[in-house]
Structures are given as C-alpha cells and as structure tokens.
Design goal:
Blueprint (H helix, E strand, L loop, with lengths): L6 E5 L9 E2 L8 E6 L9 E7 L8 E13 L5 E9 L4 E7 L5 E5 L8 E9 L8 E10 L11 E12 L10 E6 L4 E2 L4 E8 L5 E10 L2 E3 L2 E2 L5 E6 L5 E11 L9 E7 L9 E6 L5 E2 L6 E6 L5 E10 L2 E3 L2 E2 L5 E4 L8 E11 L4 E11 L11 E6 L5 H11 L6 E4 L9 H18 L2 E4 L12 H7 L4 E5 L2 E5 L8 H4 L3 H11 L4 E5 L16 H17 L4 E6 L4 E7 L2 E7 L16 E8 L2 E8 L3 E6 L16 E3 L4 E12 L2 E6 L8 E5 L5 E3 L4 E4 L3 E9 L6 E9 L1
Parallel strand pairs: 13-20, 22-29, 30-31, 31-32, 34-35, 35-36, 36-38, 42-49
Antiparallel strand pairs: 1-11, 2-5, 3-4, 4-11, 5-10, 6-9, 6-11, 7-8, 7-10, 12-14, 14-18, 15-16, 15-19, 17-18, 19-20, 21-23, 23-27, 24-25, 24-28, 26-27, 28-29, 30-39, 33-34, 37-38, 39-40, 41-43, 43-44, 43-47, 45-48, 46-47, 48-49
Helix pairs in contact: 1-2, 5-6
C-alpha cells in the first residue's frame, strides 16, 4: 500500500487480482465482481459490481465486497474515502470497519441510493473515539425497496476506485451539493410557480458565478444568495406540458456538482375533478387497542388544488375532533380529550379539497380495551420486552414476563423479521396463548422490521396505530413511530407536534416515551435516529423537564439490541437490551438476553434489567486466565488482611440459539445483591468490592434480585 502524508491508499485495483475479494450471496445471488478497464478514475483499472435482483431472495438486498487483505491503519484517520462511478439508480452504499477491540463499525458512504452518473468522490467521517487499529472489512450496496425483489429486469453496475483513509482533508475533491429542491411534487396545477434550491460546498465554497439555471434548455437569469445558498427562479405564463429545469454549479476548486439538478415538472391546468386520496387510517380493521384516548391517524393528499385543514372533518362516535394537518406530507391526526368507554367505536371522515371535491364519508370501526388501572397503594410494574424478531424468542420472553405482577407489558418493536403475513400470524398465535391467558394488555411499538416490506399494513391490521398515548396510573405513556428510515418525521411528520401538545396537557407525575430507534448509537453500528429528529425530540423533553422539575421522564428504545442508559438534562434514556438471537455488538458491551422492568412508585420511575441466565458464578477481577469460564466457578480464594479485591458476577445464557457467558457486574441496570456471611472477617460493597478485615473464612453470595426462579452464586474466601 502506498503512503501519503495526508492519505493512506488502501486499494486502487491496479493489481488486477480478483482473488483479493470475497462475495456473500446470502441475500442476493445475482451479483458479481470484476476488475475492469471499462471505467477508471486514475490508472487503468477499477472494481465493478454488477447486479440484477432476480435472485434477491430474502432480507434487504445486500451485495458485499469483502476484503481479504488487511486494509489497516495504526493512525486515526479523519475519513474513509473512495471514488464511485454511479449509474443514477444503484442502491445505498455502506462500509464496515473493525476497531482495535474487534467491534464492527458501520458507516454510510451515501445517504440514499446512488443518484448520480459518472465519477464522484465519496467520503464519510470516522469517529475519533474508535479504538485503533482500524481495518476496512467490507463495502456493500444494499437495496431496501422490497418491490424490486426477484425482478431480473432491475439491473445496474457501479465502479469503485482509490479507496483510502484520509488523515488530513487538505484537497477539495467534492463538488457542491443541492438540497431543499422545491417544488417537491412533479405535477404543477398553476400557470406559474417559483423554483428554488439550496446549494452548499463544505470546503472551498460555491462559486456563485458558475451557477447555471436552464429552463427547457435555455439559460435564465436567476437569483442567488451566497449567505443562505438559496437559488430561485420565477416561472410565469406557463402552458400545459413539460417544463425541464437543470441547475449546475462549481465550487471554488473547480469541482462540478454531482449530481446536478435535472427536474421535469408537468404543468396541468385542467380543472380539479378528483377527490382527495386517503390512506393509512388507524386504528381500523376492527382491531382491539389498549388505550381509551386513541389517536386517529391518516394520510390525506390532493395533488391539484390541495386541502385546507378546516375542510377535514373527523368524527369519533359522532363527535367532531380537532385535527392537526401537515399539508406538505399529508399526515393528519386527532384524538378525544375525554376517555372512551370500553367497546366498539366508529370513525367518520370527510375531506373536501380547495376545488370543492369531497372524499367520503370514510367509515371505520375499532375496539378499545384499556388496561386495568394499577393499585394506587402499590408500586406499578411494567415489563419491557426488547426486540424479539421471532415467535420462539417472543414466547420465551413472555413466559418470563408472566412471573411479574403486571397488567401491562410494552414490546419495543421488531416482533417479526421480514414482516410477512405468516410471521405476523405466528406472532399473533403466541400472543393469544400468552397475554390473553394472563389477561394482560400488550402495548406494541412499531419497529423497522415491522415496516420491512415498505409499509406497516400488516402491523396496523394486527395491532392498530403505531402512534398513540394513554394514561396509566400516575403516568403518561406515549408511543412514537420511528419505523421508517430511522426517523420520527419520515414515519409521520406530525408526531413531534403531537408530543408537544401532550406535554402541554400533561398532569401526570411520570412520562414514559417508547420509540424503536434510539437517539444515539455510541457503538458505531449506524442504528441511531436521524440527527434532526433526535435533536428535536431531546430538545422537546429537555425544555419540558426544565420547566417541570417534579415530573419524571423516561425514554425507552429498542433497535440496537444492547443494554445502555444515560441521562441528559434530567431525562433518562434507556436502550432495553436484547430479546433475540441476533446482535450488533459484543455480549460484553451489553448485548444481553433479557427484559426490563419499570417500577413506578412515589419516588418516581426505576428500571431494572433481568437477564435470562441459567446460572451465576463469581470470580475475582484478574484472578487468572479463566475469567468468565465455567471451569473457574465456585472456587475458593484468599485475600490478605488489609487488602481489597474486586469480584465480578458472570451469567451463563444458554437458551434457544443464545449460548454465551457474560459479566453482569458493570451494568447498574442489573440489580445484583452482594452479601457476606461474616462482616467482621470480610465486608463487601454493593458493587462487589471485598475488604479483608480479620483472619478467618467468609462466604460471599451474589444474587440477582427479584428473578424467578432465584439465581445466586456463592464463593468461599479465606482471609490470611
């Protein structure tokens, strides 16, 4: 590998040796790699990935380039970079790296599908917190649109060249980028409109004089603000037909925008005779939901004349509800201010567009069955089940949760894996057997695997609305949908407005918010919420907490399959461990099978995670080379008087496909009780630190608190 003061070249494919790479056809069998002279950025060669989707059989359409050579750096890079020749239609591009601890880190080389034609310099930031050395493991393209699956007519190719670690980003190789292109819709129902877009360049800056705007091939005089990057052009006196707008820009280093804007609008001046279109109405399908204040949600659009919120009439059991409407996305909702009675309820919707065309009435029905109210004299217990992905793990977790004195259970999403009808039916069968027998209400969160087929149709038919709230005891529980693109706003753009309204109305002591995707991923696996959504959610909660210090706020997440918690501005955030066989981080980093329990009492909300272990054993820190192995369990140890020794408690997980041993001691969310048989000889702290006081023998016991059947381990320690 060649070395440069600011860059480390990993691969330029000039070696012409295809044996340096492996493929993985687990998801897509119909792709191939070749080293070719068809396209090259420099030199004579590049790596070509060609594909079609005829043999895309399962999962997301991932096509892997696995590097056999050790493409490694001992120096922390700022970026991973490469040149990509796009065909304007190929899928999302990602990469994985291994850090010095062997942890796999996932980075997005593109934010979406490859939408450019020709060569483009692509780079992504490297987290400075990752441990060295860093090794590039693989680059892969992944298609998530399931409508393309098994279609051999969908085909394409991309070329890669000059893969490198960048230590000092001192050369501007990226052209300007466009964003916020408006209008978004391709059909314009007026004879005039304003076209606009923003352009930015992160290094040398946009060359404003280079910007060219063409309308139907003719250069036009546009406006440009260098301060905001806003480009605008007003189109007037249009006739019916197509209008093509092209925008190109260069930066101060001479790099061209890639892609530039090519947008075709269809001008339709015919009268609006079409009714609005309504979809995603929830709850519906006679589903049973466990809230008496249901959020009635739907999407309604009208492409020509549009819809005014005052012309959306939503009635629940004959009573008109106030509605909130986002005309840009079509999302709309309303909810009753007073609790509904248990039983059947009817929704009635009419929508009139600005041209007077009326949709409806649309009528649906659903049933409410609110959870039994908790005993105010006792603490309220709410078990929280992490992602399970399969019926067998769901059954396992529900069987363990059944031991808890609870009438309400929360599942954090990903009940299914590929969102097929068969999977949903298997899940419903398990739930019928488990929750109905115990007469417990199950609150479900929509996960990204519920939307795996590109929609939530089956989830909504089985479980109702993906966004809802209820009051339970002295707590307000709010469930938000982040199942699409790891985004609350993409899943339903009205949700933050909805949450803000609920916070304004709240009179409860505790607020519990559950959504699938966490606001952060400190493990580098790219399982975090879209940054703008995460910041908006955190700010909403931080501002509310600042003005309501006596209200406890707990936010629950799934998705990452790890046990982790943190506090920010007085708000507690918890990722709820793992309820499945699959994981994204090592077990010693929190990938632990189990479930959580919320205990709500006078002191607020406490969270305790209960790992599903078959056995515990105790071992001293750095005791010998067998730490964490069964062979070293229950051994006698000696400590000299006046010295201390840190002890750890390990749990053995051995159920279904999960088989591993993990140290439980580092996790504050796991309630471990340490005891000594004789405090005069040996004392032990709540964290497992033993202090030898007096010559003799004492027995130390570690117990997982409130786990049934009881899990404990003992070790005999001699003080010399």
């Amino acid at each position: 590998m060649d070395k440069h003061p600011s860059r480390l070249l990993l691969d330029d494919f000039e070696h012409d040796d295809l044996t340096k790479y492996e493929t993985n056809h687990h998801f897509v069998g119909s792709y191939a790699l070749s080293i070719t002279e068809e396209q090259m950025r420099t030199g004579r060669k590049s790596l070509k990935l060609s594909y079609h989707y005829g043999e895309w059989t399962s999962g997301n359409g991932a096509m892997y380039i696995q590097f056999k050579d050790s493409l490694q750096t001992e120096i922390m890079p700022g970026k991973l970079a490469l040149w990509v020749y796009g065909d304007g239609k190929s899928p999302w591009l990602r990469a994985t790296l291994l850090d010095g601890e062997g942890s796999r880190k996932t980075v997005n080389l593109t934010e979406g599908n490859i939408d450019w034609i020709g060569w483009k310099y692509v780079d992504v930031d490297i987290d400075k917190c990752w441990k060295l050395p860093l090794t590039l493991e693989k680059i892969y393209a992944v298609e998530t649109d399931k409508t393309l699956q098994r279609n051999p007519d969908i085909q394409g190719a991309i070329f890669l060249d000059l893969i490198q670690f960048v230590y000092k980003n001192d050369v501007d190789l990226k052209g300007p980028e466009f964003m916020d292109v408006f209008p978004k819709e391709s059909i314009i129902s007026n004879d005039s409109f304003t076209f606009s877009a923003r352009v930015f360049d992160e290094m040398s800056g946009v060359d404003g004089d280079s910007i060219r705007v063409k309308v139907n091939g003719q250069v036009v005089e546009h406006s440009y603000s260098s301060g905001t990057g806003l480009i605008q052009y007003q189109l007037n006196d249009l006739c019916e037909g197509a209008v093509e707008i092209e925008v190109v820009a260069f930066d101060q280093a001479g790099n061209v925008s890639q892609p530039s804007i090519t947008k075709t609008y269809s001008i339709d001046l015919s009268p609006d005779l079409e009714k609005p279109l309504l979809s995603n109405l929830t709850p519906s399908h006679q589903v049973v939901i466990h809230t008496d204040t249901p959020r009635i949600t739907f999407n309604v659009i009208d492409e020509k004349s549009g819809i005014d919120v005052k012309d959306i009439k939503l009635r629940l059991d004959g009573k008109i509800l106030d509605v909130a409407y986002d005309e840009d996305t079509g999302w709309c909702y309303g909810y009753p201010q007073e609790p509904l009675f248990a039983g059947e309820h009817r929704v009635h919707i009419t929508v009139t567009d600005r041209a007077g065309n009326q949709l409806g009435p649309i009528e649906e029905c659903f049933f409410t069955k609110a959870p039994q109210e908790p005993n105010a004299a006792q603490s309220t217990i709410i078990p929280v089940i992490p992602d399970t992905h399969s019926p067998d793990y769901l059954k396992l977790l529900l069987e363990n949760v059944a031991k808890e004195p609870a009438d309400l259970v929360i599942h954090m999403g990903d009940l299914v894996d590929e969102a097929t009808q068969a999977e949903f039916q298997e899940v419903k069968d398990v739930l019928t057997d488990q929750t109905d027998q115990n007469n417990r209400a199950l609150l479900t969160v929509a996960g990204n695997h519920e939307s795996f087929q590109g929609n939530l149709d089956l989830y909504q038919a089985h479980f109702g609305a993906p966004t809802y709230h209820l009051e339970y005891g002295d707590s307000l529980i709010v469930v938000l949908n982040s199942s699409f693109e790891q985004s609350i706003s993409v899943s339903d753009s009205t949700q933050c407005r909805y949450l803000e309204k609920l916070l304004q109305e709240n009179k409860q002591k505790n607020i519990i918010i559950a959504t699938h995707v966490p606001v952060q991923d400190s493990f580098g696996t790219s399982h975090q919420m879209v940054e703008t959504d995460a910041k908006q959610l955190e700010k909403l909660l931080s501002d509310y907490k600042q003005n309501n210090q006596d209200v406890s706020i707990t936010v629950l997440f799934g998705h990452l399959h790890v046990l982790q918690s943190w506090k920010r501005d007085g708000v507690t955030y918890i990722i709820n461990g793992n309820g499945a066989s699959k994981g994204y981080v090592a077990h010693e980093k929190g990938n632990i099978l189990g479930y959580g329990v919320l205990e709500i009492g006078r002191a607020g909300v406490k969270y305790n995670f209960k790992p599903l272990v078959e056995k515990l054993f105790i071992q001293p820190e750095n005791g010998d080379d067998l730490i964490g192995m069964e062979a070293s369990s229950d051994r006698d140890w000696e400590i000299s008087r006046g010295f201390t020794q840190q002890f750890h408690v390990f749990g053995r997980v051995n159920v279904l496909k999960s088989n591993y041993t993990v140290d439980l001691t580092p996790y504050d969310l796991i309630n471990i009780q340490w005891e000594t048989s004789d405090d005069r000889i040996l004392s032990i702290s709540p964290s497992g630190l033993a202090s030898a006081k007096k010559t003799g023998t004492a027995t130390v016991t570690a117990t997982l608190v409130d786990v049934q059947p009881s899990k404990k381990s003992k070790i005999t320690i001699g003080v010399t």
